[in-house]
Amino acid sequence: MANKPMRVAAIGDLHVQESDVAPYRELFAEISQHADVLALCGDLTNFGKSTEAEILAEDIKACSIPVIGVLGNHDYECGQPEKVAEILRGAGMTLLDEQAHEIDGVGFAGVKGFMGGYGRGELAPFGEPIAKLFVDEAMNEARKLENQLRTLRTDRSVAVLHYSPIVDTFEGEPEAIHQYLGSQRLCDPIDRFDHVKAVVHGHAHHGTYEGKTPLGKPVYNVAQFVVKPKFGRPYALIEV
Ligand SMILES: [Fe+2]
Ligand SMILES: [Fe+2]
Questions:
Q1: Taking residues 233-238, what's their average pLDDT?
Q2: Contact 30, 64 (CB under 8 A)
Q3: pLDDT confidence of residue 2
Q4: Ligand 1 centroid to 127 CA: how many Å?
Q5: Do residues 108 and 102 touch, judged by C-beta distance below 8 A?
Q6: 17 to each of 44, 54, 61, 94, 150, how far by Cα in Å?
Q7: 67 closest CA partner among 3, 9, 144
Q8: How far is the CA of 1 from the centre of ligand 1 (A)?
Q9: Which residues surround the ion ligand 1 when the cut-off is CB under 5 Å?
Q10: Which of 54, 83, 204, 214 is paired with 91 by a 20 to 30 Å CA distance?
Q11: pLDDT at site 3
Q12: Among 219, 223, 225, which residue's Cα sits nearest to residue 238?
């Protein structure tokens, strides 16, 4: 049924470690009872090690609903994000990066995103080549998100990110690190497409659960450390 609300469970910052034993198996089974889709918002592993990804992959297999998501900065730490993605894809997860995905009439577009700041504090592509490269990374992530959103023909979609597109949802984090928590460049494509009904992201472990884009679209920081104290369970449940 195309217009039936979809229940999206979302959780970010799983940070699976090599010493973990089936860390999310029970939780994913529980989520499968309450949601139609599970979105994982990056930092799936602690260091981007293959063994960490393999541990998570086993738990993903315990999930009986579709699992989609993006990588986070931690998944890049060992310099092999493609390997992490390959292991998770092997378990049936859909990793969003270049291509949007549709499930039962709802579109999902996702990128890791990048840092760079907001408003007047946003880093500009000016001066040294390395400064321009840094800004290019944020622009590339925003471009990939825009291109995915453009391909969607659904009347509802969810943007899945690791870094935050707005400042509201990292309220609570030290001001000195705000420019490293996300980029306003991610927000522009979200507000450009009417079909985007919700945004989920992680990364800001000490941030705030809910905020809005300039056009009023809901943005949820689903880092498990933010969600758990609020709801008594580490995942958010959002209807779109
Ligand atoms: Fe994290
Ligand atoms: Fe992160």
A1: 98
A2: no
A3: 53
A4: 31
A5: yes
A6: 9, 10, 18, 21, 36
A7: 9
A8: 35
A9: 13, 43
A10: 204
A11: 74
A12: 219
Q: What is the mean pLDDT of residues 194-220?
A: 98
Q: What's the 4 CA to ligand 1 centre distance in angstroms?
A: 32
On whether the CB atoms of residues 53 and 88 are closer than 8 A, the answer is yes
Average confidence (pLDDT) over 179-207: 97
Identify the helix (H) or strand (E) that includes residue 59: helix 50-60
Q: What is the whole-number distance in angstroms between the Cα of residue 51 and the centre of ligand 1?
A: 18
Residues 98, 146 contacting (CB under 8 angstroms): no
**Tokens matching residue 240:** 């779109």
Q: How far apart are CA 102 and CA 238, in angstroms?
A: 17
Ligand with smallest separation from the Cα of 71: 2
Q: Quote the ligand 2 centre to 1 CA distance (angstroms).
A: 35
The structure tokens 């089974």 sit at 29
Distance in Å, CA 29 to ligand 2 centroid: 25
